[in-house]
Amino acid sequence: MLPDGPGHPAPKILNARSPMALPRADFATARAFLASRPEIRVVDLLLPDLCGILRGKRVAVADLGAVYDPGLYLPGSMFALDVQGGTVEATGLGFNDGDADRPCLPVPGTLFETPWLGPQVAQLQLSMRDHDGRPFFADPRQVLAGVLERYAARGWTPVVALEFEFYFVDPARTEAGYAQPPPGRLTGRREHRTQINSMGDLESVSDILAEIAATCAAQDVPTGAALAEYGPSQWEVNLRHVADALAACDQAIRFKRIVKGVALRHGLEATFMAKPYADMAGSGLHIHTSLKDAAGGNLFASAEPFGNERLQQAAAGLLATMAEGMAVFAPNANSYRRLRPQAYVPLHASWGYNNRGVAVRVPVSDAANRRLEHRVAGADANPYLLTAVVLAGMLHGLEQGLRPPPPLEGNAYTQAVAAAPLPTDWPTALARFGEARVLREYLGDAFVRLYEISRRGEMEDFTAQLTPLDFAWYLAPL
Questions:
Q1: What is the pLDDT of residues 94-128, one digit of tens each?
Q2: What is the pTM of this model?
Q3: Rounded to whole angstroms, what are the CA distances from 106 to 75, 189, 466?
Q4: Is 285 within 8 Å of 295 (Cβ atoms)?
Q5: 265-to-118, 210, 420, 472 alpha-carbon distances in Å
Q6: What structural domains does the chain harbor?
């Protein structure tokens, strides 16, 4: 049970954006949770970095009180890490900052059991504050919170649903070090075919998907439909709409950990890598959004797909900011291998109705559920940053009263002249993000600078590496 003795005083009730403590109610909820589960011995404390990689610590239950007040202290340089865990010193968050610690506080309502790790382990999500207790500018969750404050000031609430594509792969790599599909669990064959919506493929992993769904339910992650995607052992799982964008992204973080943990229990590795196979479909992360007014009505509601002016303005804002946000939608070197024509990955800032080739899709729905679907990002995108950029773009369109271009019909890939091309290489995308005018206003100058520099540091390290292709293509001819 979580102690409240002399070493762990009950936290004070402070303002939600105050320095160190959470409301007493959440502390009491944590105590009750652990009291009802005496088998829990340790808690994994989770803080996603810019890449969406989970950082943090594992602490004993007896030490959890101090996490609520004064907080778990972790270095701010966690948000200057590249995908391999190296600090990009040019961000200023490394030794220039003394590699200083900052307090991390629990995210209310995120203390859960972790069934795939056994009954003795629970998990709790964190968010970082700065030295003065204000939200730390580099924490993606705090970046999203800042965008949401602007919606709240207008009395609007974004409703968000995320849908993930991912692969199960064989934990053993090929001799060349590449990923490979796992042997079929029913046939034993290693398939390299694509069978969209195959029920036979779905049946082969139905027990794994059922365990993922059950674990998601236990961790309050509202999953919906699951289907077989185009690639071998590629799957899509939809998370349901939530009228709390922060909670939706918290759930997305838990979802990814659940998928990876359950897959390993069954001898598989799950990957949200954007393009694990050169000749197979990439994995995307699509986000569906609408807006509720103060009375709970959908501000995008319309009997006709394009009949709502606010929906048009929001779509126009998404299109206007899409090139600026490409470095968030495609955050690493592999991300850009997914950006290929005729691969269900939009390459232009386009929109349309019931069309999977466009970047912003108005799905088929009734009037009350009218929404926008942003289809550009890869599954490797940070959910908080993706959502922040998408909502920032929508709000820009709404605040400026922008008008979208005519919606596309038919094959969006053959109508390139009708829409602005998106950056499809990492250097260009980073340059556009670093020069962003609109997104800078919503995400903050300090964050834009941090993200651009940290991602550029990883890009430079990546491009400096020699690969087998260097020798296969260039050694002999030159």
A1: 999 999 999 999 999 999 999 999 999 999 999 99
A2: 0.94
A3: 16, 45, 42
A4: no
A5: 11, 13, 45, 38
A6: 24-134 (3.10.20.70), 148-443 (3.30.590.10)
